[in-house]
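Throughout our pipeline, every protein is held as a single compact record rather than as scattered files. The record that follows is passed on verbatim for readers who wish to inspect the format.
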Amino acid sequence: MLIRTISGAVYVIILALFFLLRQFVDPKIFHALTCFFIIVGTFEIARALKQKIISWAYYASLVYAVLFVPCYLLGQYVFYDLGYLFAITLFMIMAVATCLYSLVKDISVQKFLWTALVFFYPAMLLLAMLLANDLGYNGFIVLLLAFVISPASDVFAYLVGSMIGGKKLCPRLSPKKTWSGAIGGTIGGVVASIAVYFIFLPSENFFSPVLLFAMIGLVASIVNIFGDLFESFIKRKVGIKDMGKIMPGHGGVLDRIDGTMPVTLFLYLVFLFV
């Protein structure tokens, strides 16, 4: 428990440092953290699925992960806000290459899908984090909400689930998760979202900002649960407990941000269109 606590504290300190650097030095610095998540996360998923994917895809995915953020930065800051297009093009190149190889070599559909997943997850989900970071102050709120709602939801889910217990949420994927924990986690996410509003007071003139942030917290908490269950599904398929060991007591990078990634995508879309 002590090791888990220390590891979690170090993670929080690193996140806080990157947020401070983003706000007071240069927003682009936050891209370095996202790059780290993509490279390490892709390595973790590729290693976990190594026996299920096309042989060359393991090494190709690592090269792809290293190139992903530079491609985004090239499109964003050299070719005038086309970072998303450059990143998606890189993904499509790998997806098409995988598809053609599968057709020529008569690879099974299942192996093709697992291979495509390695290129999609986590890079394409974390593309939303790169895009959100370039939204100015709205980007700060998106990133802050993502890194506050997701852990708050996890902590409340753990505490409420441990105290109340009850019917399992999805026993085949995650035996420890309960419906009471899911409800507690949702409440925690709503509270965290409202807290962010009152502390940082976004400048947007919403009709009912508190209600809006409460709804954001509600939906984001549900998205967080699905993100966690999706990673649990992958781990169950390959028979592992954690994706990595980079965070003692917590597991790998993907174990820590499995819910944060889809939550960031949801929040980015909300703040992009609201």
About this structure: The radius of gyration is 19 Å.
